[in-house]
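Can't paste images in this forum, so I'm doing it all in text. The chain is below; anyone willing to post the predicted structure tokens underneath?
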Amino acid sequence: MSITTPARLSLELNVNQKRIRGFLREQYGRLPEGVDRWELEDSQADAVRTRFARQLRPTDPALWTLEIGDTVLRREIHAAYGGQEQGGIITPRSIPDILVITSPESGARHGYDAFEGLQEDGSFLYTGEGQRGPQVFARGNTALRDAAENGRPIRLLTKQGTYVTYVGEFTTGEPAFSIETIPDSDGDLREGIIFKLVPVDADVEALGAPSTPLMESAQASSWTPPESSSYVVGAPLTPGERVVSRIEFELQKDFGQWIKSRGETPQRLRLSSAGATIEPDLYVSESGWIVEAKKSPAREYVRTAIGQVLDYSLLARESGRPAVPVVLLPSRPIAHLEALLSELGILLIVRDDEGFLVIE
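Text version of the structure:
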């Protein structure tokens, strides 16, 4: 027998859960210590219905009432809001929200697992509608593509059997989508629409893949400079091996050789975070240096490097490794940025006539 919760009653009654929980506390007291969610007896659920059904009018606008982590039956979603009962993209008429359901198990049968999932940059890739033949922009695919432009929240839910769990609110990233080659339900290759969704208010860790073995939180391996290109066009939708500019390639290559000349070992360090794998440009285990290199000392590059290297360093420390954040630049930035790096405890390393200069 299914358990009645404030989440399920909120859908049934079109009432904010905070109001339902407030009523339950007034009538029955607070939850016992260590219990964080109400599971209602029939008499308690009926009391809630009696209390709030009096205020329900057919003309009342439908409210989005689910909170992050709530699990309900999918049919309860449709009973509350309407919308397509099949497929993964739901566009109810009663609310502006677009509901997106992801299911690794069922998605794999239709080729949706080729790209779908949590990415190292914190985004979630989602495959568009259409099980056979090329996917096109129609119905749900069009709605999802234009969601940000039209001011429509995207609500992502994961599916487990007949139940769905609300992960949170998302919007489209930049770019909003790409066209990739994926298999269809018959295994034939076709063009698929891969949407890039970024969290607004969500529990992205719920999107990890529990069915796959978790990697160690930090894995070190041998390092070589990344592939280089004389220029780099905009960032790809799906992150992969890094391709950097010629300037950054030479900077990293020369820095790696300088590290070796000091009797230390440059390494790669792969870090696990919320189901994704991320890594700095270089790791020096002897000194604990976590290095993020940029091709320019301009403000936009330094600010980006600061966020990245602090993120990497915290993850490395949480894994039990020494971690000193380092920003590597081809020359010194303006004095204000040097002061900012120093205040944040980030080492600055720049080229000089004798190799590299460490600025603390």
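The CA atoms of residues 165 and 266 lie 43 Å apart. The chain is about 25% helix and 30% strand.
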